[in-house]
Design goal:
Shape: globular
Largest sheet: none
Number of helices: 11
Oligomer: single chain
Radius of gyration: 19 Å
Mean pLDDT: 83
Low-confidence stretches: 37-56
């Protein structure tokens, strides 16, 4: 965790401190949504039918946006440092805004898909416990696959950004879009667990957040299969299946 803590300290004492401030505001907003009794069942606002039919409740969208800001803002220090370093002062803020817009739009779309997948897991397996075990098993399988470290390396890829004209604007936006795509590929499994575990949503988010920070700022691991994690993932998924079947046979 040394590298992630160093990254947090660097953000706090440098020009990227707004990333930490935005994350804190978003976490506070999520806590406010949880404590507000009329919408205490905020996770229930996301129903697979509504998402598949293209309807997204306003409060649910607000919570998704807050979750995205709280979890992802501190992960963008390297990306935004790259954008700032390769952009002239006259268009620096515009380049940052275009990057963030592209990044946020792609992630919001991905969150809709992850909400739908979490609803599908609960519907198929019948209980939240079984669905959460299945999500944990998927996460362990993904963490143990050689694809995970390969994608993490792509999260650190820094493109060449043009300095002038429309090409510069498009490049800033495209960098945000592609960065979000690689981040989603790396984080989808670990982000799925808090969405599945509705009764402990924020607790699970708080648990996976340090892992995501560590993965983003630590040196990427070797690209290889990790049989222990794969075996653990299969075992956890098997337990989830047993939990799902047990009430029906009992």
């Amino acid at each position: 965790m040394d590298r992630s803590l160093a990254a947090i300290r660097s953000m706090a004492g440098g020009p990227l401190w707004p990333l930490l401030a935005a994350s804190g505001v978003c976490w506070a907003l999520m806590l406010a949504l949880v404590s507000d009794q009329p919408i205490a069942q905020f996770c229930g606002l996301h129903r697979a039918g509504d998402i598949f039919e293209g309807r997204l409740d306003g409060q649910a969208a607000l919570f998704s946006a807050a979750m995205l800001g709280g979890m992802m803002a501190p992960l963008l220090a390297q990306n935004l440092t790259w954008v700032r370093g390769l952009t002239f002062a006259s268009r620096r803020w515009r380049a940052i805004a275009l990057f963030v817009a592209g990044y946020a739009c792609v992630w919001m779309g991905a969150l809709s898909g992850l909400w739908a997948l979490s609803d599908a897991l609960r519907a198929v397996l019948g209980t939240e416990t079984a669905a959460l075990l299945a999500a944990l098993g998927l996460c362990l399988l993904w963490q143990g696959s050689p694809a995970k470290p390969a994608v993490l390396r792509l999260c650190h890829r820094a493109p060449v950004l043009p300095a002038f004209g429309m090409r510069a604007e498009i490049a800033s936006l495209w960098y945000g879009i592609t960065s979000a795509g690689w981040c989603i590929a790396a984080c989808w499994a670990i982000m799925l667990m808090p969405l599945v575990g509705q009764s402990a949503h924020l607790w699970l988010m708080a648990a996976v957040f340090p892992i995501m920070l560590h993965e983003r700022y630590a040196r990427p691991p070797a690209i290889r299969l990790r049989p222990g994690l794969v075996a653990a993932g299969l075992a956890v998924m098997a337990v989830g299946l047993v939990v799902a079947i047990a009430p029906q046979t009992g």
